[in-house]
């Protein structure tokens, strides 16, 4: 099996169309995404270069001559859309925090800015690990991504908790906050209760909750050296990714963050858009990302249906319909 270009080799030039970085991408998916952006008056190519191409360690998806499906490449493409939204969220949250935009408390803006910055770094690292065939550390990062998604949602629905988070300035205070309010599924239980009030049942006995617990258990097991059989991490012929579970679960969780945030706080999209409108910075790229957070939220939710039920290389739990 040969790759063109090899990982770590030449990637498309800065001004090349985004699709050049995704050899084998489904033309239907590309057309659908670009249509969604165009319908919202947004320039996909420009924002992709600002928010995805500029990532530290960015590289194109390797071409695999024997690949018989676009599923792996499509997954990376959708993952990168999620990265772009998180970076846009960070831009808007930073403006909201600095300019004290109405709609969220200062502590909630602070929390969103901090968590979206952390998520951006995690997603950039996860992307690099997934494309360089290092699945075990990728799985560890994916678990952290999921925890930070839960934490961001909790801060949106519990302003007093957001205030406690903002006041946690030392390592000891941050660790204590995590143990008391986030660890052990505490955050997810709070989110599930609030989602139930708007008609979504994610209680512990649902198929979704069981699937989520199963995936998190598998990702958590990556911390232990002998927890996973090595044959589960054997590259399949024609696969772009060694193991797509981490990328798939992280993409799914960012989609959930975007969708659930809008359900739990219906005014959030307009709040983010308001922050984007008042963005005033000497960095045009940062301003462009801040202005993107509101309109991109609807596009990300619309893309959920494009995310396949499970990664093509997965041999474990299946996400429920």
TrEMBL record:
Source organism superkingdom: Bacteria
Entry protein name: Uncharacterized protein
Species: Primorskyibacter flagellatus
């Amino acid at each position: 099996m040969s790759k063109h270009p090899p990982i770590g080799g030449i990637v498309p030039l800065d001004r090349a169309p985004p699709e050049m970085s995704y050899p084998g991408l489904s033309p239907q998916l590309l057309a659908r995404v670009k249509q969604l952006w165009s319908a919202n008056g947004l320039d996909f190519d420009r924002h992709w270069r600002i928010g995805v191409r500029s990532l530290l360690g960015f590289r194109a998806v390797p071409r695999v001559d024997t690949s018989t499906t676009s599923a792996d490449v499509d997954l990376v493409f959708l993952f990168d859309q999620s990265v772009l939204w998180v970076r846009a969220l960070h831009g808007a949250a930073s403006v909201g925090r600095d300019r004290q935009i109405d709609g969220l408390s200062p502590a909630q803006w602070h929390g969103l800015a901090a968590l979206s910055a952390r998520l951006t770094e995690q997603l950039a690292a996860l992307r690099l690990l997934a494309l360089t065939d290092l699945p075990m550390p990728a799985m560890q990062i994916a678990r952290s991504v999921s925890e930070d998604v839960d934490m961001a949602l909790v801060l949106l629905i519990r302003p007093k908790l957001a205030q406690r988070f903002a006041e946690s300035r030392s390592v000891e205070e941050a660790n204590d906050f995590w143990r008391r309010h986030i660890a052990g599924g505490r955050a997810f239980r709070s989110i599930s209760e609030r989602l139930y009030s708007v008609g979504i049942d994610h209680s512990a006995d649902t198929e979704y909750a069981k699937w989520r617990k199963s995936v998190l258990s598998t990702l958590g097991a990556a911390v232990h050296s002998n927890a996973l059989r090595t044959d589960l991490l054997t590259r399949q012929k024609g696969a772009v990714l060694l193991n797509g579970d981490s990328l798939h679960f992280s993409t799914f969780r960012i989609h959930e963050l975007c969708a659930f945030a809008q359900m739990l706080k219906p005014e959030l999209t307009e709040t983010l858009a308001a922050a984007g409108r008042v963005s005033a910075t000497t960095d045009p790229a940062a301003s462009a990302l801040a202005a993107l957070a509101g309109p991109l939220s609807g596009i990300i939710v619309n893309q959920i249906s494009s995310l396949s039920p499970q990664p093509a290389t997965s041999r474990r739990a299946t996400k429920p319909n």
